[in-house]
Amino acid sequence: MSSTSSPAPLPPSLPHDTGIYPPRTYLFLDDLHVGRLDGLRRATGTVEHAVGGPVLAPEAPWEGLGLIGRNCIRWDAEESRFKCWYPAYDPALPDAPAGAKRRWAYAESRDGLTWERPNLGLTEFAGSTANNLLRLEGVGESAAVLWSVAKDPRDPDPARRYKAIGLDRHPRRPGELTWTGPDGEDEWYRTCGRNLACGVYVAYSADGLTWRQRDGWAGSGALITDNTILHGYDPHTHRWVLWQRPRIMPKHRVIGASFSTDFDDWTFPECVLAPDADDPPGTQFDQLATVTASDGAFVGLLGASAVMRQDRGVMSVVPQLVYSRDARRWTRVDREPFIRPIEPPAWDDGCIIPFNPQVVGDDVFIFYYGKNAGHLWGEPTTDGARVTRSAFGLAMLRRDRWAALAAADGAEGTLTTSLIAFARPELSLNADASAGSIAVELVDCQSGDPVPGYGFADCDPVTGDSLDHVVSWAGRRDLSRIIGTARRQPQVGRALVIRVRLRGCARLYGLAC
């Protein structure tokens, strides 16, 4: 007599089978997940300069007096290194306007501190190709199309593996369009403009070293001004995001957002950030550097000009912290400088213009273009004591520590969140409680009462500094009983209100669950 048995069920492995999903991160740079704040204030995170000066400065003879950049350093996770595409300002470069005497070069680094200039052998300088200069085909070496570079492993065309975009002005080539001033063919157009092509251009490269600019602009310089900055590809909306400045006459700088699905055709920028009544008179927005945070939102460093040191006659550019969940509506988190010069007078006391922050593991690398307080490179600074130069600096931040909630009086305060859905049966805090303590209670959203056994009195105190404090109550970390699993309904609910009490100088940067 034979018998058959049912096959053993497959072990549950998918989140749908277990009810344990990847955790969601909640940051508090705006009030979306804040139900109530009692005695708490929002404080920006603390950035630290990696070294006491620039990390990348002119060294080679072809690099002239200054390195220039707006968004030129990217972390290549595939190759585990930082890559930098940068123009170097050389006043001796012939046949280029005073503000565009530059050559494009390439450098790379494993740690962001020590940089190598590989011998590329692509472009001649002083009779030799033994240098790190890039090759730009079909466009002059002073072009600005490489202001923003991205590596795109999704593109099936290997010739488009690397992508670049920037506002460029170069001698007009056959078939290229020109534009005039508002009154038509004025003196500037007759003597200069008719021979120039000026607009937003894109370029492509197979290796990031030899570039070819696509014919035709992606935006007219008559309608869009400089400092076009690429955020990158947004996987949530499946499109590229670009920050541009729509032209306002006389020149007034605001930030707009443009989008593209193919990198060739871009929407005209819609205004998303403009100075308001709370900004000092004369404030303008030069550029926006952004990164996708752990919560999926945009964290930005907004270049605000004419904010500081006006008594010295210098238009300073300093970064301010901003935040958006959709690239259109922005929160001005703090209007104080997020990064300050190392110690004035310093090499970066004229401006600090961050590049897109690069997240590597638990660290955020914020490279920036720094320049001392002067105008053109090689000229005396405004104090007459130095020579105007520029280079790249580096400020560091720990993961997600852009802004924190802290007790306003340094004593005690409480955050009550909005309703939070738990993706996993564990709660962790990104917090620094080394000079204080934190306690957490879970609240039933229907009764408004603490869940029995998970109140402040039951919580094991959270102390010390950690990006991932796992919260426990009387030693219990697993919340499966009260929030349920894929095969057992919750005793309370999969969505709870979280109440966090901070004492002393404790800081809460975010939570994950």
Gist of the model:
The protein is mainly β and 513 residues long. The chain is 3% helix and 41% strand.
Give an overview in words.
With 513 residues, this protein is mainly β. The strands form six sheets. Strands 1, 2, 3, 27, 28, 29, 30, 31 and 32 form a nine-stranded antiparallel sheet that branches. Strands 9, 10, 11, 12, 13 and 14 form a six-stranded mixed sheet that branches. A hairpin with a 4-residue loop joins strand 6 and strand 7. The chain is elongated, with a radius of gyration of 26 Å. The protein starts with 14 loop residues before the first helix and ends with a strand. About 2% of the residues have low confidence.
What's the SSE blueprint?
Layout (H helix, E strand, L loop, with lengths): L14 H4 L6 E3 L6 E5 L1 E5 L3 E2 L16 E2 L5 E4 L4 E9 L12 E8 L25 E3 L10 E4 L10 E10 L15 H5 L4 E10 L4 E4 L5 E2 L3 E11 L4 E8 L8 E6 L9 E4 L10 E9 L5 E8 L11 E8 L5 E5 L16 E4 L3 E3 L2 E9 L18 E9 L4 E5 L4 E10 L6 E16 L18 E9 L9 H4 L11 E10 L2 E6 L1
Parallel strand pairs: 9-13
Antiparallel strand pairs: 1-32, 2-28, 3-27, 4-26, 5-7, 6-7, 7-8, 10-11, 11-12, 12-13, 12-14, 15-16, 16-17, 17-18, 19-20, 20-21, 21-22, 23-25, 24-25, 25-26, 27-32, 28-31, 29-30, 29-31, 29-32
Labels describing this entry:
3 helices, elongated, 3% helix, nine-stranded antiparallel sheet, 41% strand, mainly beta, 513 residues, six-stranded mixed sheet
Indicate the percent of residues in helices. under 10%
Number of helices: 3
Reported for the largest beta sheet, the result is: 9 strands, antiparallel
Intertermini distance: 54 Å
Outline type: elongated
Q: Based on helices, strands and strand pairing, what is the structural class?
A: mainly beta
Strand content: 35-45%
Q: Which blocks of ≥5 consecutive residues have pLDDT under 50? A: 307-314
Number of DSSP strand runs: 32
Radius of gyration using CA atoms only: 26 Å
Mean pLDDT: 91
